[in-house]
Each structure stands twice: as C-alpha cells, then as structure tokens.
Amino acid sequence: MKEFIISESKTETAILVGLITLQQNEKKTNEYLDELEFLTETAGAQPVKRFTQRLDMPNSVTYVGKGKLAEIKEYIEAEHENEREIGMVIFDDELSAKQLRNIEAELKVKILDRTSLILDIFAMRAQTSHAKTQVELAQYKYMLPRLTRLWTHLERQGGGSGSGKGGSVGLRGPGETQLEMDRRIILNRMSLLKERLADIEKQKSVQRKNRGRLIRVALVGYTNVGKSTLMNLLAKSDVFAENKLFATLDTTVRKMTIDNLPFLLGDTVGFIRKLPTDLIESFKSTLDEVREADLLIHVVDISHSDFEEQLEVVERTLGDIGCGGKDTIYVFNKIDAYTYVKKDEDDLTPKTEINYTLDELKATWMAKLNDNCIFISAKNRENIEELKKRMYDKIKELHVQKYPYNDFLYPDAEDVK
User: Fold this and answer.
1) Interhelix angle for 129-143 vs 174-209, to 10°?
2) How far apart are CA 288 and CA 331, in angstroms?
C-alpha cells in the first residue's frame, strides 16, 4: 500500500503534466509546473519533460484528453527504446482513484499527483515521532479512497451471483475480501494514530501553558522563503535550513531576548499552493503554535517572481486555520537576490511587475503597511538590527496590553549599576 509513495531518494526520471483551464491561464500553469519541478527534485527525482493541454476542466476519466495521453505514452515508449527509462509521470493536481487507475493502465509507469508528491516529501522530512505520526495519518487519509486501484487484478473473481441475474451479490471474490481487510486495517491504524496525536497534543498543551507570561511570536510564510535561516539568525539557533521545500516540519520554539524584553520565537512548517487538505488537518497540532501566537512574522521571498500570490496563499491558509487578523510584521526577505528588467526609454508599453525597481516596489501597496513592513536579507544580515527594533516595539506594546501588571521585563542594562 506504499505504492503511491517514493520511499527512497532514487534518481528517477519524471514527466510533469499540467492543464491550462478557464481558471488557470498558461502563465499560471507554467508557474505551477516550475513549483512541481522543484517539488520533484526535492523528492529525489529528475524532471525531463513537460506536457500541458488546454481544457475547460480536467477530464474525469484520464485528467488529460485521450490524444494527449497517447502523446505521453508515445514519448515514454520512445525513451524506452532509446534505453532512457521514464520512472514516473507526475500530475499537477490531485487525481481521483478512477483517474489514477485509467492513467496507470494506459502508461504502464508509476503515476503520482501533486498531493502524493508533497506527502512523500513530508515523509522524508519528518524527524520526530510527532511529525512522523502526522504524516502517516495524512498518507492513510489520502490512500483510503484510492484502495480499489490496488486490487484491479482480482476484479474478474468478483463475478456474477449464483442467481443468474448478474452482479456480484452472493459471490464475493477474494479481491473484495482483501480490499475490505485492508480498509479495516487502515481505519484501525488511523484511529490509533489519532489517539497518539491526541496524547501528544495534551503534552504540548501542557508545555505551552508552562512557558510563562511571555509574548509568543511565530514565523510564518511560504515554503523556502528563508524562515529557518532567519530563525537561526535571530535566536542564534541551529534549525535545519536548506534550499529545498519543506526543510522544516516540526515547530521549533526558542526563548530569546531583545534588549530587556524576553519572548518566545517559533519557526513553523511552510505553506504551499494546493496544499492537501489532509495535511492541514493532520498538522493542526503543529499549527496550534501559530494559533496561539500573539504576533506573526510573515516572511516573504521578494526575489520570487510570484511573491504576491505566495503571500496571498499564506494569508488565505492562515484564515482557514482561524489565524486571520493577528498582529503581523511583513518581512520581505532576499533583497540581495531581487532583480528587475529595465524598460527601454522608447518602450511606451505599460510597466509590468518585472519592471519595478526595489524602491519603486516599496512605494506601491507595501507603503501602506508602514512600520509593519521591512525589507531584509537574512543571508547577508542586511537590516536585521532594524527588524529587531520593529519586533521589540511591537512585542513590548503587546506585552503591556496582555500583562499590564507583569514585572517580568528584564531591567535595562543602564539601570543595573
């Protein structure tokens, strides 16, 4: 039943498939496929070819049309003849059990969708028992409605009933029996995992209550925007940071102090477009650190060509988990990597997003964020002291509001003589 998952980081070759629909134009589809390529590389595979098709909506039977599926099959067979094996075909949307079965029967290679790929990366990244339990639960939730495709080779044994009227009533074959057994095993395992997560959540809830009267700050943002690098820089911590998606799964909380002000800083799992619902559900306890935070530090990779949509994805996900409207400081990271395309003087066409300098960009909607917005480079430690000052002012303001009679603030160094 681990058929859907890449269990090892082998250098397999992969084909990526996406659709251009009424809701998703060609530019957006290519951006999603760029991200899918990064996901594929993070999982340990090597993308070698892309296929796209224009459809009003995904085909309910084969996702793409029959002609496009035949084109993909022809490419796979041609590569096979040239001794270049295609290990898998990865689709940019979640596939139903019927689509998976039909596509696999036609292409005769491993078929994955965006959700199973993300689940596999989470399984690779999970280090603690908490994260591993959450990932395993999400995997089972994904696999449960797709179990039927595992037993298609036994379908013929569930033939007609003894009554002569057709159907399978009264003559259930071993395929269905095995399917029912697997379903029961998975449901029992899911029940056990939920109980285990409930116990872990009780422990974590006690831990959170024992953290004292301190303001809680959470780093949030799209995956791979530099949250862990910033965490290491601010808290002098050693959180794992790498130029790959979902480098951090477990929330890391560190106590830190700016001047005379102590507070708790937490690094959380990154968000992504088309994040599987089952993952959000399974990682609720991890996201509780975000829910209970008094202040969010929303880190944005301003060097990314689509940073505004990434920001919106995070804001929307935060709203979905009940964290919308929290006090937030927007930290636009990676200004060292920001680039723009300078327009020619005789080019009279309107400016596009790629033509703005960093200073011009700062004067757009970002200017309305006032002191809740700052531009930094965590890599080059640029404007980090200014960020600390912004954090200090906001945290102190929240501290006084939340604990008006708390004398827990450390005395200023100048006052200690």
Assistant:
1) 150
2) 22
Find the length of the chain. Answer: 417
pLDDT tens track for 96-130: 989 999 999 999 999 999 999 988 888 887 777 88
For residue 206, give the amino acid letter: V
Question: CA-to-CA distance for 378 and 165, rounded, in angstroms?
Answer: 71
Round to whole Å and give the CA distance between 44 and 13: 9
Q: Are strands 252-258 and 261-267 parallel, antiparallel or unpaired?
A: antiparallel
Integer-rounded Cα Rg, in Å, for the chain is 25
Query: Is residue 275 a contact partner of residue 287, using CB atoms and an 8 Å limit?
Result: no
The kind and range of the H/E element at 94 are none
DSSP class of 95? P
Question: Which residues have a Cβ under 8 Å from the Cβ of 187 and sit 6 or more positions away?
Answer: 144
Burial of 121 from C-beta contacts in 10 A (0-12 / 13-18 / 19+): buried
Q: From edge to edge, which strands make up the β-sheet containing 45-54? A: 45-54, 12-20, 88-91, 110-113
CB 118 within 8 A of CB 39: yes
Which residue, among 262, 295, 207, 208, has the nearest Cα to 408 in the 3D structure?
262
Q: What is the pLDDT of residues 131-151, one digit of tens each?
A: 888 889 988 988 888 876 554
DSSP calls for 296-314: EEEEEETTSTTHHHHHHHH
Coil, helix or strand at residue 340? coil
Cα–Cα distance measured from residue 68 to residue 53, given in angstroms and rounded to the nearest whole number: 7
- Describe the chain by its helix, strand, coil percentages, rounded to 5: 45, 15, 35
Report the distance separating Cα 290 and Cα 266, nearest Å.
8
